[in-house]
Amino acid sequence: MFEEPATKKAKLDPTTMTEKDIISDYINKIKNSKSNLQAVLSDELSHTIETTKVYIASIKDKRNISKAIQVLNEKLPLNELSHLKRVRKNTILLCQSSTVNTSTIEEYIDSKLPELKDVFELFSEIDVPSQAPKLKRQYTEAMKMWSCNFHPDIYLEKLSGDHFFPEDELNLHRTFMAIAFEAAGWYLKSTVKEITGDLLQAVNSSVVVDPSINSVVAVSFDNRLRHPVQHTAMMAIDDVARTQDGGAWTRKTTCNDSELSGIDMDLLEHLRIKFPDTKFGAKKFTSKEENIENGEKENTGPYLCTNYYIYLLKEPCFMCSMALIHARVKRVFFCFENSEFGALKSKAKLHTVQSLNHHYEVFTGFL
Amino acid sequence: MVEFMNQALELAKEALTAKEVPVGCVFTVDGTIVAKSRNCVNLTRNPTRHAELNCIDQVIEHCKTNNIDHLSYFKKVCVYVTVEPCIMCAAALNNLNVLEVVYGCANDRFGGKTVLDVSNFYENSYILTGNLMADEAMSLLKQFYKGTNPNAPESKAKKKKEM
Question: Which of A42, A217, A229 to mutate to test binding with chain B, by most B CBs within 10 Å of its CB?
């Protein structure tokens, strides 16, 4: 949006130039992005709708329509195609092509439905949507093939559109992603001389936020070179556990104050200067036992990462994506795609696997 | 094999006593146990502290102390675990290139083979064998789920019922 004056740029210490440039370059790009974030939706929602083949025929005499529907519904029910209407104008849907076990559809109808002999003419096979349309766009597409039932879902429409987040909320998401970049720069600075674009894409960092108070709960950085399981999301989950009087891994410098124990103390100091308008720290944790003692009926404090958001530089791998499901995170935001192992867009969409017991939403499109 | 799975089952029983999801695990290298652990999710308030990940930590600690390169060491590891590793653990074990994984009962809620076959996403995956003493492993899980997870907040469905 606005360029820093050239004189100010020239004043930067040349030894920190490269690292400053690439990190602040990304932060500026993110902050000045004009586009809304995009939800990563299930294939069912993002791809064109799948089709299956059915037989249809015309009714010779309109007066037979209701009888034909009654007989067909009874003897050849639509079952998994129940989202389809049986009749469209004078044409009637007979059955799914895969169920026909005679050489022609005419023979099949004659043998299965003798009472409807000579009722139909102009038999043909067409493509119809194999599943109920979920979005208006899919409904329009489906209606070109055959009439079908549709129950619009307002939230899903919004989620699949280009205006999901209002501008003020977008700025919050961009700030939290910027913190993830700032943290990556802070950690890398202590280990390497120069932060290159390749290096930045090879590591990962993350920021966990409690959106009910817009506060940063944990800031975590990849340690996979020293410990192959300590990817940033795994670290983040453990950092959150520490704010809830738990945690399995030890850290270098953490705050004794449990609300702030998800962030390295020195990093926290750095981030507070860089992001003076951002809140840091978790809500006070109370265990179930304490709640009972206090006479509270239900668990009011935080539980795992329930209702938390996580912002990651890079799309998490299968291990981390599943870990975030175990942790019951509410939303996952990432900046770069992980073409090799990404489990939320690139290689799979773990958050859309129906049989899992928890599902978070995934957003990307920061740049 | 049975001997190692018996050890893993003992650890799972220990987890049950500690009110944790009863899953136990041992790692072996050349027929010797090098790590053994069980679930400790509730204790650590970290939902990723599954038996397998605890064993991985033990191996890394062992390698660090003895100056062994853990990346080559993991390639010799056989994993005996009472329940099929979840998607997270299966991915972790694939990342580490372990030699073999033997499990007791299948995991139809989170299984890294049953729910989503993680090995499809890795070039070289481990040898996977299931159904070793599955009944024993399953019966422990059933005992646990008869009670409720003491740390979980009340479910919405349950709350509604009470209202």
Answer: A229
